TrEMBL record:
TRAF-type domain residues: 69-139
GO biological process, one term: Notch signaling pathway
Keywords noted in UniProt: Ligase, Metal-binding, Repeat, WD repeat, Zinc, Zinc-finger
WD repeat intervals: 239-271, 282-321
SMART domains the UniProt entry points to: WD40 (SM00320)
Lineage: Eukaryota, Metazoa, Chordata, Craniata, Vertebrata
TRAF-type Zn finger ranges: 69-139
Protein name stated in the entry: TRAF7 ligase
GO cellular-component term (any): nucleolus
UniProt-listed Pfam families: WD40
PROSITE patterns on file: WD_REPEATS_1, WD_REPEATS_2, WD_REPEATS_REGION, ZF_TRAF
Entry GO MF terms: ligase activity; zinc ion binding
Tagged with keyword Zinc: yes
């Protein structure tokens, strides 16, 4: 399996599992194995070979229950808590050993009591131990001493932090003094360069106006069929900043903002009007950001951490987090003041109330992951494994089912006359 490799064989990127294979994990967990305390190294010369130990644990257990059984297994080796020099024991024999152990220490040994004996002499000793009557005072003293140690440790940390900050401030002051003179020279150079760039921008704007005029003239003359798209659509630039694949995009046209979600668990906000730079990085998810959706002045993001986060677009701040599904949130879409979220075998319908999401209904009867959702005026279209379901948005009932081929449906587009879907096996169905 290629997932067992640490890196992708194509681009050498580190491999991560987006969604665990639930069926395979459950099948492996049903396998029966011997308890490790019922096995011993085999007498053969083969390395890492084991055989059943007739004197060990006789139980066979499911692999999924291994940790629970072995943590409580009566055949697990343990050490005497009273003295490490006592012989090794099995857990089932520990209680009997403690009744006979000759190395029981007085609970006040840390204060200087030297008593060591068995259970009978231990109980007799406690009646006469001079520290027993002072145990409350000794405990209070220990507590005060511990508090003082904690306070001293905190003060030491604060002192160390202040010293490091003082050193850094001194270095910064020295660096600022060195850079101050250079800044004035760079400022003069930048002013000259800015003037040159402004002149070049004006020339480019003039050329663009000429191109637009030429295109309009060709459209008016009815010869649109002969144009070259490469002469109209040109790459304006490239946004760089994410540390992983970009899974989803969403445009807020009012403020000329572009939102991008990535496997680096962040959402970046880009200015598409003036600076073409990242305005802010939104952090809050613990998994890949798989879906973005805008309703009004709110941005909704769905993630592999199974949550939906509500963001205020005006101040770009997180205002709410909803534990939406038990599995990754793969897709989001909004319509009629409702938000629809797709996950494993389920679509949840949420009423949007301010910054809150109130669960209205869960649409079930889906056969696999819901990775594509599209909402029109009257219908919701959902794509899963070889199936497109059409739901009436007014009553949230399924009104039609389209069967496709080519594996899971990953994308859907709806026109006035057609439904178009892209599938896992490189196909587009119309």
């Amino acid at each position: 399996c290629s997932l067992l490799a640490e890196k992708c064989p194509v681009d050498n990127a580190k491999l991560t599992v987006v969604v665990n294979n639930i069926a395979v994990a459950e099948q492996i967990g049903e396998l029966f194995i011997h308890c490790k305390y019922g096995c011993r190294a085999a007498a053969s010369s083969k390395p890492a070979a084991f055989e059943v130990d007739p004197r060990g644990c006789p139980f066979t257990i499911k692999l999924s229950a291994r940790k629970d059984h072995e943590s409580s297994c009566d055949y697990r080796p343990v050490r005497c808590p009273n003295n490490p020099s006592c012989p090794p024991l099995l857990k089932m024999n520990l209680e009997a050993h403690l009744k006979e152990c000759e190395h029981i220490k007085c609970p006040h040994s840390k204060y200087g009591c030297t008593f060591i004996g068995n259970q009978d002499t231990y109980e007799t000793h406690l009646e006469t131990c001079k520290f027993e009557g002072l145990k409350e005072f000794l405990q209070q003293t220990d507590d005060r001493f511990h508090e003082m140690q904690v306070a001293m440790a905190q003060k030491d940390q604060e002192i160390a932090f202040l010293r490091s900050m003082l050193g850094k401030l001194s270095e910064k002051i020295d660096q600022l003094e060195k850079n101050l003179e250079l800044k004035f020279d760079v400022l003069d150079e930048n002013q000259s360069k800015l003037s040159e760039d402004l002149m070049e921008f004006r020339r480019d704007a003039s050329m663009l106006n000429d191109e637009l005029s030429h295109i309009n003239a060709r459209l008016n003359m009815g010869i649109l069929g002969s144009y070259d798209p490469q002469q109209i659509f040109k790459c304006k630039g490239t946004f760089v900043g994410h540390q992983g694949p970009v899974w989803c995009l969403c445009v807020y046209s009012i403020g000329d903002l572009l939102f991008s979600g990535s496997s680096d668990k962040t959402i970046k906000v880009w200015d598409t009007c003036t600076t073409y730079k990242c305005q802010k990085t939104l952090e809050g998810h613990d998994g890949i950001v798989l879906a973005l959706c805008i309703q009004g002045n709110k941005l909704y993001s769905g993630s592999a951490d199974c949550t939906i986060i509500v963001w205020d677009i005006q101040n770009l701040q997180k205002v709410n987090t909803i534990r939406a599904h038990d599995n990754p949130v793969c897709t989001l879409v909004s319509s009629h003041n409702m938000l629809f979220s797709g996950s494993l075998k389920a679509i949840k319908v949420w009423d949007i109330v301010g910054t809150e999401l109130k669960l209205k209904k869960e649409l079930t009867g889906l056969n696999h992951w819901v990775r594509a959702l599209v909402a029109s005026q009257n219908y919701l279209y959902s794509g899963s494994y070889q199936t497109i379901k059409i739901w009436d948005i007014r009553n949230l009932e399924c009104v039609h089912v389209l069967q496709t081929s080519g594996g899971s449906v990953y994308s859907i587009a709806v026109t006035n006359h057609h439904i178009v879907c892209g599938t896992y096996e490189n196909l587009i169905h119309v």
